[in-house]
């Protein structure tokens, strides 16, 4: 690839800030790596929040709806910030975020009930 050729946008998050490292193209915004001409292989691995923003491990999210915890009288209130999330790519039950919430403890959340902070 020559220097005067524009690099393609990231196929995962559409960022235009991609850069090349050896034979890989890298997106600094979502950390996706691909080879030129390679199609996005598994879009199902991309986990997005309620607003459609791509989530990454270590992100901070905010809960957008009161969430009752099964088997308990506890509630995760709207506006609760959850730091340092971990994504679960192959979640079969829809709970694709693993996290620890202050005052409640470790739990799993659905990405449809959070927004990126």
Give an account of the 3D structure.
The chain folds into 2 domains: 1-41, N-terminal domain of TfIIb, CATH 2.20.25; 60-116, SH3 Domains (SH3 type barrels, Roll). It has a 3-stranded antiparallel beta sheet, with no helix packed on it. Strands 7-4-11 form a 3-stranded antiparallel beta sheet, with no helix packed on it. A 3-stranded antiparallel beta sheet has the order 8-9-10, with no helix packed on it. The chain is mainly beta. The N and C termini lie far apart (36 Å). It has no helices and 11 strands.
Query: What is the H/E order?
Result: EEEEEEEEEEE
Helix content: under 10%
Outline the low-pLDDT stretches. none
User: Rg, please?
Assistant: 17 Å
Largest sheet: 3 strands, antiparallel
- Classify the fold: give the CATH topology of the largest domain: SH3 type barrels
CATH class of the largest domain: Mainly Beta
The strand line-up of the biggest sheet is 1-2-3
Alpha-beta content class: mainly beta
Question: What general form does the structure show?
Answer: elongated
The domain count comes to: 2
Mean pLDDT score, rounded? 85
Gap between N and C termini:
36 Å
Strand content: 25-35%
Spell out the CATH superfamily of the largest domain: SH3 Domains
CATH architectural arrangement of the largest domain: Roll
Number of strands: 11
Figure out the total of helices.
Answer: 0
Domain Protein YjdM N-terminal: 7-34
Organism: Acinetobacter marinus
Family: Belongs to the YjdM family.
GO molecular function: hydrolase activity
């Amino acid at each position: 690839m020559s220097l005067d050729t524009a690099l393609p946008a990231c196929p995962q998050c559409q960022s235009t800030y991609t850069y090349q490292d050896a034979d890989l193209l890298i997106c600094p915004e979502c950390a996706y790596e691909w080879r030129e001409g390679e199609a996005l292989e598994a879009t199902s691995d991309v986990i997005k929040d309620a607003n459609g923003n791509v989530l990454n491990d270590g992100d901070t999210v905010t809960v957008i709806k009161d969430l009752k915890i099964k088997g308990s009288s506890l509630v995760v209130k709207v506006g609760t910030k959850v730091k340092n999330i971990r994504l679960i790519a192959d979640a079969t039950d829809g709970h694709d975020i693993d996290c620890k919430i202050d005052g409640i403890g470790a739990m799993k959340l659905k990405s449809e009930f959070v927004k990126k902070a």
